[in-house]
Amino acid sequence: MTDRLHAEQGRGDPFAAAVRATRMPMIITDPRQKDNPIVFCNDAFCDLTGYGREEVLGRNCRFLQGEDTDQGDIGLVRIAIEARTDVSVELLNYKKDGQPFWNALYISPVFTDAGELQFFFASQFDVTDRKERELAALEGREFFERAVRDRTAELEAALAQKTMLLHEVDHRVKNNLQMVAAMIRNQARFSGSDDVKTSLVATLARVETLGAVHRRLYESKDIATFSLSDFISEISVGLVDSTGQSRVQLDLDLEPVEVAAPSASPLALLVNELLTNALKHAFPDGRCNGRIRVTMRSADGEATLTVEDDGVGLPAQPDSRRSTFGHRLVQSLVRQIRGSLTLSDAAPGTRATIRFPSHSAASRP
Length: 365
Ligand SMILES: Cc1cc2nc3c(=O)[nH]c(=O)nc-3n(C[C@H](O)[C@H](O)[C@H](O)COP(=O)(O)O)c2cc1C
Ligand SMILES: Nc1ncnc2c1ncn2[C@@H]1O[C@H](COP(=O)(O)OP(=O)(O)OP(=O)(O)O)[C@@H](O)[C@H]1O
Ligand SMILES: [Mg+2]
Hints:
This protein has 365 residues and is α+β, with helices and mostly antiparallel strands. The chain has helices spanning 2-8, 14-21, 43-49, 53-56, 71-83, 128-190, 194-219, 228-242, 261-282, 319-322, 325-336; strands at 26-29, 38-41, 87-94, 100-111, 117-126, 225-227, 249-254, 257-260, 291-299, 302-309, 340-345, 350-357, 359-360. It is 50% helix and 23% strand. The strands form three sheets. Strands 2-1-5-4-3 form a five-stranded antiparallel sheet, with helices on both faces. The chain has a five-stranded mixed sheet with strand order 7-9-10-12-11. The structure holds flavin mononucleotide, adenosine-5'-triphosphate and magnesium ion.
C-alpha cells in the first residue's frame, strides 16, 4: 500500500491521491518492522514539522517529542499501540527548528481482511492557538484565584488581629470597671458620713450595672445588639437581693426586646435608677407585702418599659425631686436613648414609664 501511495503521485487511486493532497498532516507506520517506523508521510506532515520526507521515513515518530512533552500522555499512546486500539491525545511536539507546537494526534490501527495488523495510520492537527488560549485562560484564572486566596488570607489575619484587640480591650474594660467598683466599695466602707456612704453605694450600683452590661455584650456572639429583657431580669433580681428587700415581691413580665449596643448602657442605668427608687422610697414603712412590677412591651418600633410599685407614691411636692443626682441622671439617660419618661400615680404607688425606639427580638431576621 505504501509503495502504491508513493507510486501513485495522485494518479490512479483516488484515496491515495486524497491522502497526499489533504492539508491534514498524516503518516502511516509499519508495526511489522523494528520499532514501528514511518513508511509514509504526506506533504502536510512535512510542512507542519519542518522535516523533509527522507528525514522521517524509517524513524519512529517519537523524534517529535521533547523536554516538555507529557510522559503520561506518551504512556497512553504506548498502551493503545500495544493494545492495537485507536487513541486520541494532545501532545506537545517540536518542529525541526525546535519550535514547540500542540499536536492533536489521532492514531488508528489498520487490519487486513484476515484480521492481521498491517499499519498504523495517524493524523496530526496543529492546535497550538486553541491550546495557548486555554492555557492563558487557565493562567488568568489561577492568577485571580491566587489573588483572591492572598486577599482572603490578609483579611483573615486582619480579622484575627482585630478579634485579639477586641478581647484585649474587653479584658481591660472589665478589669478597670472592677477596679473602680472596688475603690468605691472601699471608700464607702471607710467613710465616716452616712450621706457619703449612701451616695457611694448608689454609685457602686451604677458602676456594677455598667459592668454587667459590658459582660453581657461581650459574652454574646452578637455584639451589635443587646437583649434587654434578659438583662433586666438578671439585674432586677440582683438589685432586690442586694438591697435586702426580700420581703418585696418582684413581678417580671418582659417581652423579648433587643436594642442597639450603644443604647444598652443608658437603658440598663435607667432600670437601675427606677428600681432602686422603688426599693428605696416606695416602702419606707418596711411593708411586708410590697410589690414591684417591671413590664416590657414592644410594638411598631417602639418599646415601653414600666417600673411600677404599690408603695407610698411620689411626694406631693414635685420640686423636691428636681435637684437630686438620680433625677438629673434619669433625664439625661432618657435623652440619650431618644425616649420619653412619664411618672404617674399608680394608685396606690408610682408608675415610671419609658418609651424608646426599638425592635422586638421576634421581628429580627
Ligand atoms: C502512527 C503513529 C503516529 C504517531 N505520531 C506521533 C506524533 O505525531 N507525535 C508523537 O509525539 N508521537 C507519535 N507517535 C507515538 C510514538 O511513535 C510512540 O509510539 C510513543 O512515543 C510511545 O512509545 P515509546 O514510549 O516507545 O516512545 C505515533 C505513533 C504511531 C504508531
Ligand atoms: N418609686 C417611688 N416611690 C416613692 N417615692 C419616690 C419613688 N421614686 C422617687 N421617689 C421620690 O422622688 C425623690 C427623688 O428621686 P431621685 O431618684 O431623683 O432621687 P433619690 O433617689 O432621692 O436620690 P438618688 O437617685 O440621687 O440617689 C425621692 O427622694 C423620693 O422621695
Ligand atoms: Mg434615685
